[in-house]
Write a structure and sequence with these properties.
Elements: H1 2-28, H2 33-40, H3 51-63, E1 87-90, H4 106-116, E2 124-131, H5 139-159, E3 168-174, E4 192-199
Parallel strand pairs: 2-3
Antiparallel strand pairs: 1-4, 2-4
Helix pairs in contact: 2-4, 3-5
Length: 223
């Protein structure tokens, strides 16, 4: 009986160990570069969004105390045109209430960087869009947090993976544009989006330096 008990305990221990390993593997699963490229390379036309104005609108709306606010489920998206752009939704884990990226999400950020330097995506610029699910914090605090998280992803892509800063624009939408309006508290609404936004502006060719004017010949001296 004692041996059987030990055997049973061992089997339970092994099962728990395998379950933990499976859970860790699942948590570390990252999208492939081709998955991301496939979502982002269907560019048709540039997004008509004034980003500085949008940032201001997000903060103003998040701060507003509207008596007739329809609530998170019925709150209209603040930039509906963004839904028309090719998008990849990334499951990036951050430390609670901070823009600090958790280690298990580093691989996903690296795959995003790999995708952005793929030949089919090099001609484009991208938006990094931060979102936050509805929670106990104020909409203003969540708008600020979503912007800081978008900024953090941009900084890693630029500083660690050397993506040109000219190709990346971070914008935080907070609670002002839920990914799933029917479930505002869902973790889905905390996902970060990469959107194909526009073509990289062509740089004007450098004008060659003007050739120096020939020196005028002095008249020969008469003897």
């Amino acid at each position: 009986m004692r041996a059987a008990g030990h055997s049973s305990t061992a089997r339970i221990g092994i099962a728990l160990g395998l379950a933990l390993l499976a859970g860790t593997a699942a948590a570390q699963t990252a999208p492939t570069r081709d998955d991301i490229v496939g979502k982002l390379n269907h560019f048709e036309e540039a997004g008509e969004v004034d980003l500085p104005a949008l940032k201001q609108q997000v903060m103003e709306r998040a701060k507003a105390r509207i008596k007739n606010d329809p609530g998170p489920v019925n709150r209209p998206p603040i930039a509906p045109d963004l839904a028309k752009l090719p998008a990849f939704n990334a499951q990036i884990q951050f430390d609670a209430d901070t823009p600090i990226i958790q280690p298990e999400s580093y691989q996903t950020v690296g795959r995003i960087a790999d995708a952005l330097v793929h030949a089919s995506l090099l001609p484009y610029t991208f938006l990094i869009v931060g979102h936050v699910e509805s929670n106990s914090k104020t909409r203003e605090a969540n708008a600020i947090l979503s912007q800081r998280r978008a900024d953090a992803i941009r900084d890693v892509l630029v500083n660690t993976f050397k993506i040109s800063t000219k190709r990346l624009q971070p914008i935080g939408l907070g609670e002002e544009q839920f990914l799933d309006r029917a479930k505002p508290t869902s973790a889905v609404n905390g996902q970060l989006q990469i959107l194909t936004f526009a073509k990289v502006p062509e740089e004007a060719p450098a004008h060659p330096a003007a050739a120096p004017a020939p020196a005028s010949k002095k008249p020969a001296k008469r003897h």
